[in-house]
Amino acid sequence: MTTTSRLPGLHKLSPLERLHKLSEATALSQSSIEHLANMGNLNTATADSMVENVIGTMNIPLGIATNMIIDGLDILIPMATEESSVIAAVCNAARQCRNTGGFTTASSGSLMIAQIQLVDVPNPAFARLQILERLNEIKMICDETDPVLLKHGGGFRDIEVRTLASRASSMVITHLIVDTRDAMGANAVNSMAEAVAPYIAQWTGGRCYLRILSNLADRRLARARATWSLEEIGGAEVRDGILSAFEFADIDPYRAATHNKGIMNGVSAVVLATGNDTRAVEAGAHAYAARSGQYRSLTQWGIDGDGNLTGSIEIPLAVGLIGGATRSHPTASIALEIMNIQTAEQLARTIAAVGLAQNFSALKALATTGIQKGHMALHAKNIAVMAGALGDEIETVASQLVAQGKIRVDIAEEILTSLRQ
Ligand code: MEV
């Protein structure tokens, strides 16, 4: 029971002091408090500087996806995920397209969009032109706001002004289009939007409300494609099952949501491992999937001239190498080092390939044996732990569960009891 949720001044305390406060306010046991006090490999001071009211860290397994070839180079990819079958799925998909050259990737560049909302203008079409005329001044304001970005070859690129009819009245939306290079760029473009907004209000006589980036980063698309030979995937029937699964997702939003969730299993795991913003990428991906007016598949599947299976993905990927947790979290830096990633664009392309690989494995499993067989086999270890297995017992219980074909906690408990007798 929590005595009170009013904990004034909590933010001023150290993480350890906060834990003491927490133990007073809740029924947490001493062992739970000690568990939280162990921050693992994220040092307490770093964690404390990242977010408010830190009391611990939430460790998620970090695994390595093997077998990937991207643009002709072998690459090992760290993935942070709590879902048991996600990393294995990428390893399998990547192994099955090694003989056809792995993944080929590209990107549309690293342009981010910031939006400035202008209201209360009597003539929106007129205001639109008033803003467009100021391109050079807007460029100057933006570039003065972030000279560091300019020094690294980025900065303001263009504007786009749209008039939107809302229920109350029309509004004029200015998009600042900014090349953020190796930064994810949220802070850079948000600052630019805030700097430009008062001028827009002054030029047009209107009022500016929102000044914020758009997570629909459709000028920062990453692309990946690959071919899987019929021999590798197990023949034409498997290929046709995958194609039919894709068609299903492309015409049905209920299925597309699950299909794209599977893609994001891979995408978000690399985004998280590299300390990037999973929510930004997820919001962008789903909005992009709905760009036609219907929510559809983020991937496309087809057949090449030899009857092999081809797959491709195009997805907005606003990720960076500098700033945020990517810089401050040591595990994120090591993840980038493992992949030998040099630019944000290269990271985005790598993530797109992982998303495609993830989708291949999910569709292949769904179109053949079903997802549960492989998933539950990998989940067996979790079940063994849930039943109380420790150390070597985990593997033994898990393999007996798989052998019996029944991955259940009650059975795991029975196996464990007989193992211990
Ligand atoms: C589970 O996390 C992901 C899948 O549901 C994806 C899909 O259905 O394509 C298996």
Notable traits:
421 residues, alpha+beta, 3-hydroxy-3-methylglutaryl-coenzyme A Reductase, Chain A, domain 2, Alpha-Beta Plaits, 4-stranded antiparallel β-sheet
Radius of gyration: 25 Å
- The count of domains is 4
Distance between the termini: 38 Å
Helix % is 40-55%
In this structure, how is the largest beta sheet organized?
A: 4 strands, antiparallel
Assess the beta-strand content as a share of residues: 15-25%
Distinct small molecules bound, one entry per kind: (R)-mevalonate
Mean pLDDT: 95
- As for the CATH topology of the largest domain, it is 3-hydroxy-3-methylglutaryl-coenzyme A Reductase, Chain A, domain 2
The succession of helices and strands, N to C, reads HHHEEEEHEEHHHEEHEEHHHHEEHHHHHH
CATH first level of the largest domain: Alpha Beta
Low-pLDDT stretches are none
Structural category is alpha+beta
| Helix run count | 18
User: Mind telling me which CATH architecture of the largest domain this is?
Assistant: Alpha-Beta Complex
Rough outline: globular
In the CATH hierarchy, what is the superfamily of the largest domain?
3-hydroxy-3-methylglutaryl-coenzyme A Reductase, Chain A, domain 2
Strand order of the largest sheet: 5-10-12-11
What is the number of E strands?
12
Topology diagram in text:
Layout (H helix, E strand, L loop, with lengths): L14 H11 L4 H8 L6 H7 L11 E4 L3 E2 L2 E2 L2 E4 L5 H10 L8 E4 L3 E9 L4 H9 L2 H11 L1 H5 L3 E11 L4 E10 L6 H19 L2 E7 L7 E8 L1 H4 L2 H16 L1 H21 L4 H12 L9 E5 L5 E8 L7 H5 L1 H10 L4 H24 L3 H16 L5 H13 L4 H12 L1
The structure holds (R)-mevalonate (MEV).
